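Fill in residues.
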């Protein structure tokens, strides 16, 4: 988790709880107490929290009051201030939203700051490490605002890293608008000298008109607003170019990257050897082409180091959204940190990652179906008796996919009763057929006297590996096997009435692509999506396989068709 994201989560916790001690915060965020205390010191310096012995509370609890435009402006300003760094050269306008940034800049040092707001200059100059320059002009009656074109001379030949501006109204056709013609002239000059133009626009400004436009959307680098903005406005702004940032009342931030006319999606696939991953990739490539999305595909090769390098390369390729499919649960936090730093939204396929939208398998229920089918077969064919249960696992994938194993065992026990630990043998299938074959062959050598062995596959490749191992040592009749995926690699076996593979839970990988693309477009357009989206499952056997995967024309898209998953 990045420092910025961690501190946002800390602020959210304090907003929810009112006050918390360091130990509780440490446990909730999964970081050390020293890290929490460091974060609290930094947030206190910025005026966000008030520390007390052993804990802290938020100073500005009114920031979550959506009924006050002032509170929305403060939230926008707080995020805007987080974009500043020590040593920056910055030009501020005199709008109320921009002025709120001052209190969140207290510990930034060695900056060169320009403003035409007297009160803002007076606050900024309290930090002696900063150079504060008041832009010249005519002093207004209120004694705070220096206004007019006389300030041009000081800006002549000037270049700054960032300028922060606001407006009276925001129009898709005319951009940022003010009611003051003279001020519009000055604002255009301010925009021309900045490398980045950052507009702070509370949601009440969208759709309001004025008399003097001063910045088109193409001239603005970023628009920061609050969560009062409508989905339609998000879509319209996204289609016109600038990066959009939406800050909600809990301090959570949504980033919508600058549009380049066509969204670019990065897809890091599990590998290219498994039929399941191949089906996912084929469907995604078709759906992306139909939706006019640019898709960049990488192969994670079931290797954590390769997966991390692929993330780096896709970030450099300028992706707008990442679809990550890897096997190693332990690298999820690193992957998310890399992408969070670039504000790239993430969809996690089958292996969840904190902060990403999950898409894929309902593991427990998928396993339960297979386990119940296994139990029924044993009850009918072996009169409820069995010698061993071989449980094919993939430890790298973590606890979430392991739920399919728990489901399989629960399903068997639902039919057959409690399965003693002594009858269970867990084998690492490595997510590959050859690894599974070797593991099962070794297990069969250990138990030569076992002639009724139930094999619970982690996926179809592992199930096929188990079948090949049994055939290799002449013990096919000693095993009965269930799979997970119902991928193409196993369907001919399921159709074979002599096969010891009695069925597999369908995950429909051929439909992942269409659903992933629909989900990606919703996220990129700022539409609400649930935190997790799972596929519906069916246990495929030789009695129902032709209903779902007709053999005659090989169009395996009937009952599980895309319409049922739209």
């Amino acid at each position: 988790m990045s420092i910025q994201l961690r501190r946002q989560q800390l602020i959210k916790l304090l907003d929810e709880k009112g006050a918390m001690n360091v130990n509780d915060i440490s446990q909730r965020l999964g970081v050390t107490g020293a890290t929490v205390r460091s974060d609290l010191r930094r947030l206190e310096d910025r005026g966000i929290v008030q520390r007390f012995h052993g804990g802290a509370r938020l100073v500005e609890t009114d920031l979550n009051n959506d009924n006050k435009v002032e509170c929305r402006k403060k939230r926008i300003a707080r995020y805007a201030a987080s974009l500043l760094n020590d040593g920056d050269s910055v030009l501020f306008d005199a709008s109320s939203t921009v002025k709120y940034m001052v209190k969140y800049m207290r510990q930034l040092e060695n900056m060169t700051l320009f403003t035409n707001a007297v009160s803002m200059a007076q606050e900024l100059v309290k930090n002696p490490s900063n150079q504060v320059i008041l832009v010249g002009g005519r002093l207004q009656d209120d004694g705070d605002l220096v206004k007019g074109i006389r300030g041009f001379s000081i800006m002549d030949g000037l270049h700054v890293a960032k300028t922060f501006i606001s407006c009276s109204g925001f129009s898709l056709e005319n951009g940022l608008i003010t009611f003051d013609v003279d001020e519009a002239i000055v604002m255009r000059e301010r925009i021309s000298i900045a490398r980045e133009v950052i507009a702070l626009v509370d949601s009440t400004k969208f759709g309001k008109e004025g008399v003097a436009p001063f910045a088109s959307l193409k001239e603005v680098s970023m628009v920061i607003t609050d969560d009062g903005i409508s989905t339609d406005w998000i879509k319209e702004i996204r289609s016109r170019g600038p990066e959009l940032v939406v800050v909600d009342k809990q301090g959570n931030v949504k980033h919508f990257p600058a549009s380049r006319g066509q969204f670019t999606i990065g897809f890091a696939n599990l590998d290219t050897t498994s039929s399941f991953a191949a089906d996912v990739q084929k469907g995604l490539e078709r759906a992306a082409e139909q939706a006019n999305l640019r898709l960049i595909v990488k192969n994670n090769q079931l290797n954590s180091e390769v997966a991390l390098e692929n993330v780096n390369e896709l970030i450099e390729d300028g992706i707008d959204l990442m679809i990550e499919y890897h096997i190693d649960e332990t690298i999820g936090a690193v992957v998310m940190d890399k992408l969070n730093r670039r504000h790239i939204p993430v969809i996690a396929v089958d292996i969840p990652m904190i902060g990403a939208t999950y898409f894929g398998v309902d593991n427990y229920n998928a396993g339960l179906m297979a386990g119940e089918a296994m139990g029924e077969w044993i009850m009918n064919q072996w009169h409820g008796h069995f010698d061993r249960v071989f449980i094919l696992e993939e430890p790298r994938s973590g606890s979430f996919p392991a739920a399919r194993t728990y489901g399989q065992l629960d399903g068997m026990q639902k039919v057959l009763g409690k399965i003693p630990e002594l009858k269970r043998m867990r084998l690492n299938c490595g997510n590959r057929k050859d690894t599974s074959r070797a593991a099962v062959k070794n297990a069969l050598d250990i138990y030569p006297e076992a002639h009724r062995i139930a094999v619970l596959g982690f996926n179809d490749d592992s199930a096929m590996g188990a079948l090949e191992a049994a055939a290799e040592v002449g013990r096919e009749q000693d095993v009965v096997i269930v799979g997970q995926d119902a991928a193409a690699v196993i369907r001919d076996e399921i159709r074979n009435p002599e096969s010891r593979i009695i069925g597999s839970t369908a995950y429909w990988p051929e439909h992942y692509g269409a659903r992933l693309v629909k989900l990606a477009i919703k996220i990129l357009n700022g539409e609400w999506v649930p935190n997790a989206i799972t596929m519906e499952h069916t246990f495929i056997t030789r009695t129902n396989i032709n209903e779902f995967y007709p053999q005659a024309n090989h169009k395996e898209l009937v009952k599980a068709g895309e319409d049922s998953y739209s």
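Residues 63-256 form a domain with the Rossmann fold fold (CATH 3.40.50.1360).
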